[in-house]
Amino acid sequence: MTHLLRVPPPAAPPLTGHLPFTDAPGVPDPIEVTSRWLTRGGRAWLPVSGEFHYSRCPHGEWEEELLKMKAGGVTAVASYVIWIHHEEIEGRVRFDGHRDLRCFAELCARHGLDFIPRIGPWSHAEVRNGGLPDWLLARACTPRTDDPAYLEPVRAWFTAIAGQLRGLDRASGGPIVAIQIENELYDQPGHLRTLKRLAQEAGLSAPLWTSTAWGGVQLPGDELLPLYGGYSEAFWTEADGGWPDTCRKHFFFTHERDDEGIGADLRPTAVRGAGPAPTDRFPWATCELGGGMAVAYHRRPRVEAADVGALGLTKLGCGSVWQGYYMFHGGTNPAGELTSLQESHATGYPNDLPVLTYDFQAPLGEYGQVRPSYHELRLQHLLLAGFGHRIAPMRSVLPEQPPAGQHDRDTLRWAVRTDGTSGFLFVTNHQPHEPLPGHPDTAFTVAFPDAPSLTLPSTPVTVPSGAYFCWPLRLDVAGLRLEWATAQPVCAVEADGRTVLVLAATDGIAPELALDADTVGSVEVPSGEITPVAGRVLVSGVRPGTDALVEVEAADGSRVGLLVLDAATARTVYRGRAWGAERLVLCGDGVVFDEHRHEVRLHSPAAEPTFAVLPAPDSALVVEGAGVREAADGVFTRYTVDAGPPAGTVATVRSVRPAGPAPEPVTGVQGRASVPGEKDVDAAAAEYRVDVPQDLLRNPSGVLLRLRWTGDLARACVGDALVADQFWSGRVWDIGLDRLPARALRTEGLRLKVLPLAPDAAVHVPEQPDDTWREARVLDAVWVVTRRWAVRTG
């Protein structure tokens, strides 16, 4: 079947200068906002922001984790500035340790990352009281309104934030590109305007002032840039509600920006704003695309890497010009001095969250774990780093035959971003929970108003179930025009006197490259066929891999390489400045580029970490404390670190006592299941003791205890102190050894409490074949040691 999309005539130019967002005078790369996209330094700009809460991560880990985010393609770091984390006790505002907002912002600046503080005062973020301190709620005031008794402490709080960020604004060369006011406040535009004014009076400054815009928010005119979101799953819906339609909608190409589901548990569904913000005045920007999802006690969704990747790619096809993820990096709730600091029924919220973990199943986990979703998103972010300035001004166009509705699983989902003559074709054939069928005999025709139509591929293909991808249409590369390809552009790099464009094949679809014959002088292929077809040079039969380099001499004499990697290898591509030049690094583990220390660091649990580089540096690479072997890997040079085996082993977990009968279920706010009380846990939980090897205790950095277990909830304690916790959802449970109190651990040891779940408890977990998961058991445990290797030139 050939799917047809007709590109309409060019739209009128976007509105410019109509919004009150101005950058600091004299900055070299001024940020501006049109009605359809953002610009920076006069060039279309497509930022990638990722949420990372500094106050939920130890201070000493910030820099390396920020570098991981940057290597993952994040260009701006967003973070809630959570009031209760800083001023739990009235009048004692703390910015020390993990609360050091200024240090965090300075680290962003040091490594070329923009910073977006989300200053509240109400944040939500699954924090106690949404981030408002208990002492504030005890006052005679009406929070989140213009009540003077509320605005007085808010003014003081904003002044404290401004003091920390003084000199870090754009006028001073700082990293702050945007400031978010409040969060999810949908029906008080006047209060939003007041909060912005208070923040400005306190001394806060940014070219962009933003607000979340879901739920039909009412905004104060043009004063705040509306930002949207979308999640593949939700913990805040009912346990028996199934997969929410508000999540399902995000796996379709549409031009609807709003999501009525986000935060719907905290607002009356019958009371909404006046409708979505006008789309003819603001670009489609996001701040909360689901990088994962938290788990609540009553509902425990599990988010897979493909869910995250397909969601992000679909939003690009829909027209997003700002990819913002929540969360990109997970965290741990700090220990409160007066109370625990998580959202809970005890504070009147409809969801019970774990006391400590805020891992969020994020691409970078609570302890910095590099997850498959990190690699999925990095693949897309490499595309945006290289071609985002082309994609941002392109409008989204939908096909002639779109799906009939949100439950249509049979119509292929696709869209095109286009400028009228070229573009990118997006396909999503994945959604969670309900697999979509494959689509055999598929071809696409894109009819342009000002250029000949394109039909691709040369022979119809099957779009596999679960596939999602982006194909280029008339992409110019260093003098060569790639008319189309059935492989996704990844990035380009200069190597051996030529521009190498890397493309990622899709499993199940043979890659084809159609070159404009007028731009081609000669073509050489490592495998496959070269066929002249109607003014094009068609390259087919290429076997994807590190040696699949199609070498082209363009008609203007420039040299271009088209490197087609297989899908798995493409997800190991990093691009960054390393050893004095821009290079590609292939590595299935974590990689950071540290220009200040002139090194690349690998984070790997492997006995012999390996990575490949293009172009290879002129000097030999060295790793302190280990040898390095070098070998050819296609057009790359592969290096293997002779590191010796890591210290990780099977963990010794001893049963201390079996579980008792599961406690009777209890309910709380909105009739949802509540976390069992401490007495129930103490009475019914199975207890285990974990022996921690002395060699790991001597060097706990990068060491995880990884447990497979079943039951309701689990808690880890050192002595009487809770050090980690989790609700069961079928995922492994990681505990970072270097986060545990070392001295007490040596004397007290590590204890695990695992509680069984009653058969009639109103708790949702992903589909299970039987009820054995409700039994309280530790199935197995291993020590995972991720070592850090600094790679330098000799």
Task: Give an account of the 3D structure.
By secondary structure, the chain is an alpha+beta fold. The chain has four domains: 45-388, TIM Barrel (Alpha-Beta Barrel), CATH 3.20.20; 411-565, Beta-galactosidase, domain 2 (beta-galactosidase, domain 2); 572-604 and 606-644, no CATH class; 649-789, Jelly Rolls. α8 packs parallel to α9 (372-391). The radius of gyration is 27 Å and the shape is globular. The termini are far apart.
Task: List its salient traits.
single chain, alpha+beta, TIM Barrel, beta-galactosidase, domain 2, 4 domains, 8-stranded parallel β-sheet, 8-stranded antiparallel β-sheet, globular
Short summary:
This protein has 794 residues and is an alpha+beta fold.
Low-confidence stretches: none
Number of domains: 4
CATH class group of the largest domain? Alpha Beta
For this structure, the CATH topology of the largest domain is: TIM Barrel
Distance between the termini: 57 Å
Helix count from the secondary structure assignment: 13
User: Structural class given helices, strands, pairing?
Assistant: alpha+beta
CATH architectural category of the largest domain: Alpha-Beta Barrel
Q: Overall pLDDT, averaged? A: 96
CATH superfamily of the largest domain: Glycosidases
Strand coverage percent:
25-35%
GO biological process, one term: carbohydrate metabolic process
Pfam family, one: Glyco_hydro_35
Protein name: Glycoside hydrolase 35 catalytic domain-containing protein
GO molecular function: hydrolase activity, hydrolyzing O-glycosyl compounds
List the helices and strands and how they pair.
Layout: E1 2-6, E2 31-33, E3 38-40, E4 43-45, E5 48-51, H1 62-71, E6 76-80, H2 83-86, H3 101-110, E7 114-118, H4 134-137, H5 148-165, E8 178-180, H6 189-202, E9 208-212, E10 225-230, H7 245-248, E11 285-290, H8 305-318, E12 323-326, E13 331-332, E14 357-358, H9 372-391, E15 395-397, E16 414-418, E17 423-428, E18 439-447, E19 454-463, E20 468-477, E21 480-485, E22 488-495, E23 498-504, E24 513-516, E25 520-524, E26 529-533, E27 536-540, E28 549-554, E29 559-565, H10 567-570, E30 573-578, E31 581-586, E32 590-594, E33 599-604, E34 610-614, E35 621-623, E36 627-633, E37 636-642, E38 652-657, H11 678-684, E39 686-691, H12 694-698, E40 703-710, E41 713-718, E42 721-727, E43 733-736, H13 742-748, E44 750-755, E45 777-785, E46 787-793
Parallel strand pairs: 1-18, 5-6, 5-12, 6-7, 8-9, 9-10, 10-11, 11-12, 23-29
Antiparallel strand pairs: 2-3, 3-4, 13-14, 15-16, 16-17, 17-20, 18-19, 20-21, 21-24, 22-23, 24-27, 25-28, 26-27, 28-29, 30-31, 31-34, 32-33, 33-46, 34-37, 35-46, 36-37, 38-39, 39-44, 40-43, 40-45, 41-42, 41-44
Helix pairs in contact: 5-6, 8-9
GO molecular function, one term: hydrolase activity, hydrolyzing O-glycosyl compounds
GO biological process, one term: carbohydrate metabolic process
Domain Glycoside hydrolase 35 catalytic: 41-186
